[in-house]
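User: Hi! I have a protein structure encoded as tokens and I'd like to know what sequence might fold into it. I'm fairly new to this, so please keep things simple.
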């Protein structure tokens, strides 16, 4: 595998002249928005694809100018303006310090160790590691998934199919870690006096790990025993619900292997704006008048449209520099071109108090090109509805007369100040179905209301929303309407708009009840299979009946289950279930439809999937042959 001594800037500069630019594989003149090549050569260092680094003592602007002058016109700006020092990084100082401290400790004091960097895509995790390695004089040895499996004759897991031999990605990864950890980098001509200190970086994971995370854990267990240099994993969060970091590195493994974890946040809009302004100014200077510095409004729009992804923002800026062409084609809208949404501008109360004339944050602009799919963590999405933010008409004339005047006097109590959020957009960006979103609202809304009349009205709206989706035939179509009724109903009912401050949010009670229900279905089907009844019939018809009998034909497991499920009226409930708190970065879990679940259950081997919380059958054999059971006395009293 190739590696590049990042420490030696001169060498790196030389190498970069003959290395392909990031988008060499695209037709001339076209620019990719991704900013990164995924089909890199086998096991090559990502550092090879990066631009040369800055020399000490050069100021950043001067450096940027020189660099940009040397580069071809088509070079992506993300590559051209990639940061070379901590000061240039658009990452929070504290995060940089945390990573720096960890690297220092694990390269000097305790050699080795594993660090996990998480955070949304494009927030500068990789850039931070690269900058710090450069500053600390570390070489980066990076694993990249091989796209073609090369012959690897020494490998243990070798596949030999008619003279063709190749090893699995997994065994190559294992070997890479072993060698990277064991051997120093080769000294190359031009390396000078670079140190042997290095850092292993893994951002691409062999696919096998997503199927069997256990195989990764086994490799890591072996790695930590002999670890000599730090190993950094970078895992990007996804808002669509599949959290790779939690799947690949569950809490138990982090504790067992003493893996440190640092979570990055999206790039702050102000920092992003500074970077974009700097880049556009430099590019405008360089273009000798051909390109103009974009309006502040356009830059702000790019920032808000990128959802904290600096790569996406810079790519969009580069596109917007082609504005003349795009504008001609009508593909790019500037703020001026956008239709006026309303006659009077609406500002939030807090903004008004601060006497800021800025557009409120909540009015996120839609971007025609390059806008990243703006996602919201569920916690924030719920907050936007529950905190019920409203604005006032900025234009005094309008605020005095128009809105209330629009309502007849007997409906004047329904007047509300305009909303600062678009409820349907909030739900869409939460990546959760309307029904589940309403469920979360239902669980949490009480804490945000101050008047009992408002609660009464809100509960009516929630019931209406529920009714809209009660019929399974029309549920798919009506789901969104139901959610509109729930969200808008809650917003409208909350007439007082009292500031409640921070309130913890909880996962719906329904969640736990549904889980218990599914476990019971599974257990009922497993324990009373010979009755050939559906899980529901078993629990609602057969088990209550068996519970009344003094001498049912049951095993101990069956008796326990009958006592648990079939005797509801006699049971004492322990009170309310303990609710799970919803954390701020948690994606909303989408439970599968219970009908689907039931179907699935009937297809799979029940004995394999019987939940731990249920009494386990003695053996399957015993259950299938009921007549052989030892019948115990069962006292229903
Ligand atoms: N000031 C800056 N700070 C951070 N990155 C910058 C800056 N200017 C330009 N960039 C570029 O933005 C990109 C940031 O992407 P980076 O690979 O660091 O993100 P990431 O958090 O690792 O996400 P992913 O996992 O998707 O790669 C890099 O290409 C970097 O060169």
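Assistant: Happy to help. Inverse folding works backwards from shape to sequence: for each of the 637 positions I chose a residue that suits the local structure. Here it is:
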């Amino acid at each position: 595998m190739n590696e590049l001594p990042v420490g030696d800037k001169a060498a790196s500069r030389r190498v970069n002249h003959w290395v392909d630019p990031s988008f060499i594989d695209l037709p001339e003149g076209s620019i990719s928005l991704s900013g990164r090549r995924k089909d890199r050569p086998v096991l090559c260092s990502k550092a090879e694809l990066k631009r040369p680094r800055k020399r000490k003592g050069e100021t950043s602007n001067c450096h940027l100018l020189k660099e940009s002058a040397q580069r071809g016109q088509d070079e992506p700006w993300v590559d051209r303006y990639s940061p070379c020092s901590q000061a240039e990084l658009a990452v929070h100082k504290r995060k940089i310090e945390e990573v720096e401290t960890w690297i220092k400790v694990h390269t000097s004091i305790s050699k080795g160790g594993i660090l996990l960097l998480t955070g949304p895509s494009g927030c500068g995790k990789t850039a931070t590691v690269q900058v710090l390695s450069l500053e600390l004089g570390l070489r980066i040895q990076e694993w990249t998934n091989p796209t073609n499996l090369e012959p690897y004759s020494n490998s243990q897991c070798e596949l030999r199919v008619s003279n063709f031999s190749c090893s699995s990605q997994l065994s190559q990864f294992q070997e890479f870690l072993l060698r990277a950890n064991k051997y120093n980098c080769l000294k190359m001509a031009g390396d000078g006096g670079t140190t042997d200190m290095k850092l292993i970086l893994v951002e691409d994971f062999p696919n096998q790990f997503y199927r069997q995370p256990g195989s990764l854990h086994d490799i890591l267990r072996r790695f930590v025993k002999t670890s000599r240099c730090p190993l950094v994993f970078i895992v990007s969060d996804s808002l669509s619900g599949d959290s790779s970091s939690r799947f690949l590195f569950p809490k138990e493994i982090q504790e067992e292997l003493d893996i440190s974890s640092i979570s990055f946040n999206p790039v702050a809009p102000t920092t992003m704006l500074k970077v974009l302004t700097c880049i556009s100014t430099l590019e405008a200077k360089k273009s000798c008048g051909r390109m103009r510095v974009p309006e502040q409004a356009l830059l702000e729009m790019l920032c808000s449209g990128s959802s904290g992804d600096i790569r996406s923002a810079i790519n969009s800026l580069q596109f917007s520099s082609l504005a003349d062409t795009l504008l001609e084609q009508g593909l790019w809208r500037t703020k001026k071109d956008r239709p006026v949404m309303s006659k009077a501008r609406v500002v939030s109360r807090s903004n008004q108090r601060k006497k800021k004339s800025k557009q409120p944050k909540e009015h996120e602009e839609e971007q025609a090109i390059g806008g990243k799919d703006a996602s919201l963590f569920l916690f924030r999405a719920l907050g936007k509805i529950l905190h019920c933010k409203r604005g006032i008409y900025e234009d005094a004339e309008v605020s005095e007369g128009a809105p209330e005047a629009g309502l007849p006097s007997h409906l004047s109590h329904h007047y509300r100040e305009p909303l600062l959020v678009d409820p349907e957009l909030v739900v869409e960006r939460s990546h959760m179905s309307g029904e589940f979103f309403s469920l979360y609202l239902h669980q949490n809304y009480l804490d945000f209301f101050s008047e009992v009349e408002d609660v009464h009205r809100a509960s009516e709206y929630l019931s209406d929303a529920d009714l809209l989706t009660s019929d399974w035939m029309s549920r798919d179509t009506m789901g969104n309407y139901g959610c509109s009724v729930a969200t808008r109903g809650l917003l409208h009912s909350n007439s007082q708009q009292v500031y409640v401050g921070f309130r913890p949010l909880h996962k719906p009670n329904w969640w736990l009840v549904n889980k218990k229900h599914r476990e019971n279905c599974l257990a009922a089907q497993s324990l009373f299979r010979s009755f050939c009844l559906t899980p529901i019939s078993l629990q609602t018809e057969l088990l209550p009946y068996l519970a009344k009998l003094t001498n049912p034909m049951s095993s101990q497991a069956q008796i326990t289950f009958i006592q648990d499920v079939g005797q509801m009226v006699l049971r004492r409930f322990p009170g309310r279930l303990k609710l799970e708190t919803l954390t701020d970065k948690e994606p909303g879990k989408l439970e599968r439809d219970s009908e689907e679940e039931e179907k699935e259950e009937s297809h799979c081997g029940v004995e394999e999937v019987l939940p731990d919380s249920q009494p386990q059958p003695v053996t399957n054999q015993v259950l299938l042959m009921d007549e052989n059971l030892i019948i115990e006395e069962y006292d229903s009293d």
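A useful reference point when you look it over: The first helix runs from residue 9 to 18. Feel free to ask if any position seems puzzling.
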